[in-house]
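The authors assume throughout that readers already know how a fold can be written as discrete tokens. What matters is that the chain and its backbone geometry are given together, residue for residue. A single example would do more here than another paragraph of explanation. For illustration, here is how one protein appears when written out as sequence plus structure tokens.
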Amino acid sequence: MTTTLDIRRPSPHVAEVWLNRPEVRNAFNDGVIAELTAAFAELGADPTLRAIVLGGHGKAFCAGADLSWMRAMAGYGWEENRADAARLAEMLWTIWSCPLPVVGRIHGDCYAGGVGLAAVCDVLVAAEGVHFCLSEARLGLLPATIGPYVVRALGEQASRRYFLSAERFGAARAAALGFAHEVAPAELLDARVAEIVAALVANGPAAVKACKQLVKDVAGRPIDAALRDDSARRIADIRASSEGREGVQSFLDKREPGWR
């Protein structure tokens, strides 16, 4: 049983993963990284789940790396640093590649590696007053491990600015850049997250997973013959599936589908 993560099942089809180190602003260390990796691998394989919410207890969502962990890293050689970074990379990949939709609940400030955690979520809802900061350059470092995900979510031009300057930017700016999908007053944050989760759960479970994979697979690809054929195969697969048939038939019958 972990104490650095608080994992809950508020309903049969939803899991919540809460960072639970409020005393250090939910900063992560090697233990948290291992636990997040294991948690998302396990939850992603659970056939009863349809959505995961990622949040944090306390005032901050995530302050990035734990100071004690950073002190230890200061004495690492190149090989130790590479191995350490590889574990972080594996955690980010596990969350990003989770077949279930992941909703990020950003209630407080989000710095450095915390921005990476936000970036691997599929839907991001931030509270008004939240600040984001890619602060690595201030320490003479760079956001290399989180970089691929942040650049995808934030955009290349905005990443140039905020990677290089390490400036803070607010929730409204994050939404304007497309990094956050929505900004809500703090007192309405949970209600808005719940609405989004309810929308996800109402959809065909296999269709939601297929939609998530589709976006990843087609983003940035040229619309050539191979992609056109691939897209035709995907829709044929889902139309011929039991879920696809049930969804269409329930629509024609003017009734709720069996999964709802």
The CA atoms of residues 96 and 120 lie 5 Å apart. The beta strands are 5-11, 14-19, 51-56, 102-106, 110-111, 123-127, 131-133, 168-170, 182-184. The chain has two domains: 5-200, 204-253.
